Amino acid sequence: MLEGLAHAEAAVSDCLDAPAWALAEHDLVAALDAAHRLEQRLAAVKLTLVRELDGRGTATAQGASSTAVWLRDRLRLSVSAARRLVDLAGALDAGAPGVRAALAGGDISVEQARVIGDTVSTVRTSAGAEAAGKAVAVLVEWAGQFEPTLLRKLGTRILDHVAPEVAEAAARAALEAEARRASRDRHVTLSELSDGRLRLSGSLDAEAAGLLRAAIDPLTAPSGPDDRRSPGQRRHDALADLTGPLRRALVLRDRGCAFPGCDRPPRWCDAHHIHHWADGGRTSLTNAVLLCAHHHRHVHRGEWTVRLGGDGRPEFVPPAWLDPDRLPRRNHYHRRT
């Protein structure tokens, strides 16, 4: 092996002295491909050597606490890079010979090999050795088309291809683990500042996040072309508009989107000015109505007329093309009268 590596090093040295500028473009590209392929094949040799040294206990025999620490000093690597080298060498030796063969053939890169090794290890745990072998073949084929980050993303669905009978159970287990993590990590922190303001931070689980977004999203849109508030400032003001008396009064009166036939609840609605604020309309209970986003846009087209009836409840006058008599309509979904 030493003689072969010496010949390879001499050949590389010759390449270093060769004038790249003299190559035609197609030869330059071919040389790049060859250099990359050689780099991966040398990486396979390097991993074989690391695995053998680790197995022999050379590092501890020479006084190092681990092979990774020994490699850090020997090859002047960071500890994390050395540890990844040891881990990958072990993974390729223990259970992914097909990955090592692909790396030795220059068909995949070291980073792709690391992704495939991680993914195959997960498949072996979930579905056994046979499925792991199939996964190697599929992932090596994908590695010819996709870079490591995308390959890892695709690898999350590898069970659908090699072991569909266990893929559903594995996906369910992953979702349950994610739900447990979200439940464990949920929190809200309120830090009172010296001037009376409050700093808010935290992590919401999916359900609480959905409720918060449903509540404040309809209230965060710019109020008009002159609204200079930043998105963060609009979210702040939306929070203030929620525990406010006008919104509570609207919810008590309309109980949801007031447009006829709509069943959207209050948390999906925002307050619509019956007489537009840009035309001098006041923000008040007698000039507001709860509308979901869809019907808010619909009303703004101007074909429907919104007004309050004699009992103070909103009613909607349809356009003449829909009802020539233009009889007022009300939402009877939220209340029967």
Structure description:
Strand 5 and strand 6 (314-317) form a beta hairpin. This protein has helices at residues 2-17, 25-56, 58-61, 67-75, 79-95, 97-104, 110-127, 129-143, 148-155, 159-162, 164-185, 206-216, 231-241, 245-254, 293-300, and strands at residues 187-192, 198-203, 269-273, 288-292, 305-308, 314-317. The model has no long low-confidence stretch (mean pLDDT 85). The protein has 15 helices and 6 strands. The strands form 3 sheets. The protein has a two-stranded antiparallel sheet with strand order 1-2. Strands 3-4 form a two-stranded antiparallel ribbon. The chain has a two-stranded antiparallel sheet with strand order 5-6. It is elongated and about 100 Å long.
Low-confidence stretches: none
- Fraction of residues in H or I helices: 55-70%
* Strand coverage percent: 5-15%
* Overall shape: elongated
Spatial strand order of the main sheet:
1-2
| Separation of the first and last Cα atoms | 91 Å
- Mean of all residue-level pLDDT scores: 85
Rg, Cα atoms, Å: 33 Å
- Describe the largest sheet: 2 strands, antiparallel
Give me the secondary-structure category. mainly alpha
How many individual β-strands? 6
What is the ordering of alpha helices and beta strands? HHHHHHHHHHHEEHHHEEHEE
- Count every helix, treating DSSP H or I runs of 4 or more residues as helices: 15
Key descriptive features of the protein:
mainly alpha, two-stranded antiparallel ribbon, 15 helices, single chain, 337 residues, 57% helix, 9% strand
